Every structure is written in C-alpha cells, then in structure tokens.
Amino acid sequence: MTIPTSNNNELLVEENSSLEGLPNIRDPKLQSGSTSNSNSTTAANNDTTKENCMNDRTKGLLVMMIGVLVISPDAVLTHFLSNGGSQPWTIIFWKMVFAVPVALGFAVYDAGGISKLSHQIQYGKYYYPIVVPLQAAVDTCFTLAFVYTSAAKALLLINLNPLWCALAGRFLLGDVLPTRTYLALGLAFLCTLVIFVPELVQRSNSQEETTMSEFDEGIEDIPFVENDGALLGNVIALFTGLGLAAYITLVRHASTQNSPPVHLIGCTPLAAMLAAVVALIVRKGDVLPESYWRIDTNEELSTTEMNNNNHQYWQFWLASVAQGIAIGVIFICITIAPRLITGAEVGLCVLLEAVLGPLFVFLAYGDVPSLWTILGGSLLLVVLAVHEATPLFHKAHKTIRQSIQNRRTRRSQCLKEEQHHQHDLPLEVTITKPSNSTVEVESGESE
Question: Where are the domains of the chain?
C-alpha cells in the first residue's frame, strides 16, 4: 500500500500555513517573551509609581520652600516697623488682621465649604478651646521675640521646637525616641550654652564695672534697659518654641488618637482673630500708625516733608500687609507639605529660616550677630540638620538596597529563562524529524 506522501506534505504545509500567524504556546521563545513582557509591564508600573512618589516629594519640598522663603522676611519687617516707632502690639494687631482673610479662605477651601468647616469645629470642640489660645500666644510671642532680641537668637531658640516635639511625643503620645534624639537634645543644650553663657558673663562683668564707676561718681541711674530687653526676648523666643511644639503635639494627638481624626484647620483664623482682639485691648484701641508714619495736622510741613511722610505711611501698610500674608502662606504650606513629604523633611526646610532671617536683617540694617552667636548657632543648626536628616539617609539606603535586590532578582530570572530556552530548543527538532524520516521509509518500501 502506497502512502500518498505528497498529500501528507501538502496537508502539513497547509496546516503550518494556517497556523503560521498564531503563536505556539509550547515555543519557549514566546513563553520567555510573554514573561519578559509581563515583567516589563510590572517594571513600568513600578517606575510610574516611583515617578508619582518623586513628583509628590518634589511638590512637597517646593511648597515648604515657598513657605519658608515667604516667612523669612518677617524678622526684618518687624525690625523695620519697630524702628519706625510702632508699638509691638500695634504690629501684632495689623499682622493678625491681614492674616485672617488668607487663613480663613484656605480653611474654608480645604474643609470643602463653610458648613463643613463648622462641623469640623464642632467635632473638635474639646481641642479648639486649648489649641486656639495656644496658637494665638505663639503668634504673638513670635513677633515680640523679634522686637526684644536679635533675629538670629530668636530664630535659633524657636527652631529648637523639633526636639521639644520629640519629648512631648514621648510623654504624651507614647512615641519611642531613638538614641539620636537624646543625643541631639544634649548637644543642643550645649550649643545654647555656647550662645548665651559668654554673653551673660560679659554682661555681669560690665554691670559690675559700671556699678562701681557710677557708685564712685554718685550716679544712681544705671541704664540696662537694652540688655534686660534682650534677655526678655530670649525668654520669649524659648517659650515660643515650646508653645509651637505643644501646638504640633496637640494637632498630632487630634489626628491620630481619634477615629475619625479631628481636623484643627480652623484654629489659625480663630487664633489670629483672638490675637488681634488681645492686641486691641492692650493698646486700648490706639492701633493706628504712630506719628513717624503719619502726618501731624498740627504742624506746618513743607511739600517735600509731606511727600516723605506719605511715603512712610505707605511703607507701614505695605509691611503690615506683607506680614499678614506671610503668616497665612506659611500656615497653608505647613498644612499641605506634611501630606506630601515626611516630618523630617519639613523640619529641614524650616531650619532654612534660621539662616535667611538674620541674613535679611544684615542686608537691610547691617546687624551682625556676636561671634558666640555665630559659633553656637552654626553648631546648633548642624546638630538639628543631622538629627532631621538621619532618618532620610536610612530610608534612602534602604530604598537603594531594595532596588539592587530587585535588579538582581530580575537578572536571575532572565538567566533561568535563557537556560530553559536553550534546554527546550533541541526537543522541538527531535519531534519534527521522525515524521519526515517515517515518510521517507514508507515511501521507499512502497517502491
């Protein structure tokens, strides 16, 4: 019996041609290709996720940097208004008045409307009576510190608040503090001693010398108002940092210890209103610019003097509006940034104010901090920067190690797929050859 080999060949050709466009699921090349495609898709998704995270981090850093740059001139603006004869409570009043619209507008926007903001305030009724006066006190003392002491010392003492926050979190929220925090607290205390102890020793020696000389001359009045004011400003700045740490801790407690969390976004406009009312009471309603900033109608002034006074009047309102907007903007940035970046990164950005604030005062008035302030302040900034940056370094190191491990895993998978492909390729050849040889043998027997 003769087997029609040509027909079988034609059938094989037709079958192969009909299946030519279809993938062979047993082909290891295609299997490895599909695996590589799935791996590439997964890698692409991971890259997209990382890119989104990087974009969020970039946005958070940008928002926080904008807030720090906007609030940094606050020290030089307070210095400018104080030198013009403005009373500290007058400065506070107008700053808070112009801060209310900015803070209230963002609070309403973030809450989703006035009614929702009202519900949030009612829900946090146990927190608002404590947080609002606390924030009003912090806002008030923040300005008073710049009035009574130098911007460098005030900002250095205020920026100790991350360490106070760590201690408050340990005792109030049960946070576990790493060893670096205790070490940073000790070093920060030593840096503070470097800043203030030489000044106190110098003041004590100067006071003794002046007292002896004036006692010999029979003079009873001893002018130490400026030094006493500087000491008062340093104390106010220290308590400002403590109050800010207490405020941040209460905000954390409200958001982490309650379900659903309590949002204290309405505290800033209410605190600004409260601070403005207190300033108005202290000044007994006299919160208008002082005579330096306005024209005295009882005096006969030339046109040039009137123009100069009008220019000064315009400067007063411009500085007051700028301070109010700065307070509102930093509130918005501090609210948005922690949603996108870590608390350590926020702390690092805030440290920049301790450098920019005194720099602006130096550029405007030429005020140079003392040698001990520069030395101790520089060491303090280094301690705080290292303390805040250490967890970021650990996180980056962990991310790099994970990335290297994932890359090695993908490489080993690719090597296994190549070895599997090289092992399965001869099997396909051995399967196709017997059919051809069988056809030839049978055709030879038929002949």
Answer: 61-214+224-288+304-397
